[in-house]
Amino acid sequence: MSTATRTRRRPEAAPKAETADDAPVDLLTAADHAALHELMLLTRAVEERGVRLYKQGKIPGSFYDGRGQEAIAVGATYALAADDVVCSPLIRDLGAHLVRGTDLVEVFRHYLGRENRLSRGREGNIHFGDRRLGVVGPVSMLPDMMVVAVGVAMAFRIRGEQRCALSFFGDGATSRGDWHEAMNWASVRRDPVVFVCENNQLAYSTPTSRQFRVRPAERAAAYAMPAEIVDGNDVTAVFDAVRRARERALDGGGPTLVEAESMRMHGHGAHDDASYVTPELLAAWADRDPLAAHAPIAVAHGVDPEALLRMVTERVDAAVAEALSSPMPDPAGATDDVFCVGEPQGLGAGDAPWSGFATAAIADRRQAA
Ligand SMILES: Cc1ncc(C[n+]2csc(CCOP(=O)(O)OP(=O)(O)O)c2C)c(N)n1
Ligand SMILES: [Mg+2]
């Protein structure tokens, strides 16, 4: 165990994953399954509305969504404590923002180019984060935010804080040099970082077969880094892999690579018809839709997915109406915030909705198992 001490808000001790004989225990309560299902529904509903607003000409630029990949961002971020840092959600990771508590009206204001707290109307769709919630927004260069996440994790290690950083990136990003630099440095220094690779079979129009001969998870061995391939359409599997990786990181075990396998069900952006993807491939993955896969599990835990969907739709309707009636940014402020003036604000803590951070119930259930 690390002797590091926490200096900030401490969640309840994260429960160990396994029983004495290493059998996995379901650490998710009925409330967790309801939350996971709602967050995935919300992700999809927000993005569906975003695509519609783009096609109505209300969203400038293009619109990028993560249809079919909702379980990755939601499951992974759900496994983080409030003061861990997400660094950073990319174009398929709206769910990460929603788990951390990013305000829905602000998200739509941002999409619509209205005055807002996230980007002040300077960006359309992708580059945003709410640092007050411990979410660092991305820059475009892929996968540069992996290197930033390693820097954040180094700071946690050096300061002796029991926190970890998490970085998302796609399969395409793994062909870049920065990917290898981040993997190597984090492993050598045993920095507390979780790398989540979203293998969605494509980087723009390039299939993975034309990107690499050795898949990302297998390459981790070259850095003596533990890695795991998970079904990225199974929200509980993603949650569990990231939760274990986080625990390893906090125990001084260094980084882990989680490769979540899924499929990009839409084009790269709304401007891309993805005519290079066969209908058969899409149909096969549609049968593994992450929301449909989780629905029976949620129902078994007493959740009513249809009632949740109605509630989510109402929330989205209300957020869109409020965002559409919000003012555009004042052009006079266009050059504000180009440079940081004064001391930069530190990162805040986000929502950590998993019951394991909030109650001792998980530990009791593990003992009873
Ligand atoms: C260094 C760099 N090269 C090119 C791009 C342009 N670009 C943006 S997204 C993208 C595809 C990325 O594919 P992947 O990493 O698999 O993520 P996905 O879009 O599939 O989620 C490319 C090439 C970029 N942002 N950064
Ligand atoms: Mg990809």
From TrEMBL:
Cofactor: thiamine diphosphate
Gene3D superfamilies recorded: 3.40.50.970
InterPro entries noted in UniProt: Alpha-ketoacid_DH_E1_comp (IPR050771), DH_E1 (IPR001017), THDP-binding (IPR029061)
Cross-referenced Pfam families: E1_dh
Domain Dehydrogenase E1 component: 39-325
Catalysed reactions, semicolon-separated: N(6)-[(R)-lipoyl]-L-lysyl-[protein] + 3-methyl-2-oxobutanoate + H(+) = N(6)-[(R)-S(8)-2-methylpropanoyldihydrolipoyl]-L-lysyl-[protein] + CO2
The enzyme's E.C. designation: 1.2.4.4
Swiss-Prot/TrEMBL keywords: Oxidoreductase, Pyruvate, Thiamine pyrophosphate
Disordered: annotated span: 1-22
Compositionally biased spans, kind Basic and acidic residues: 10-19
Group of enzyme by EC: oxidoreductase
Molecular function via GO: branched-chain 2-oxo acid dehydrogenase activity; magnesium ion binding
The UniProt record lists the keyword Ligase: no
Record flagged with keyword Oxidoreductase: yes
GO biological process: branched-chain amino acid catabolic process
Entries under PANTHER family matching the protein: 2-OXOISOVALERATE DEHYDROGENASE SUBUNIT ALPHA, MITOCHONDRIAL (PTHR43380)
Family: Belongs to the BCKDHA family.
Summary of the function given for this chain in its UniProt record: The branched-chain alpha-keto dehydrogenase complex catalyzes the overall conversion of alpha-keto acids to acyl-CoA and CO(2). It contains multiple copies of three enzymatic components: branched-chain alpha-keto acid decarboxylase (E1), lipoamide acyltransferase (E2) and lipoamide dehydrogenase (E3).
UniProt protein name: 2-oxoisovalerate dehydrogenase subunit alpha
Species: Patulibacter medicamentivorans
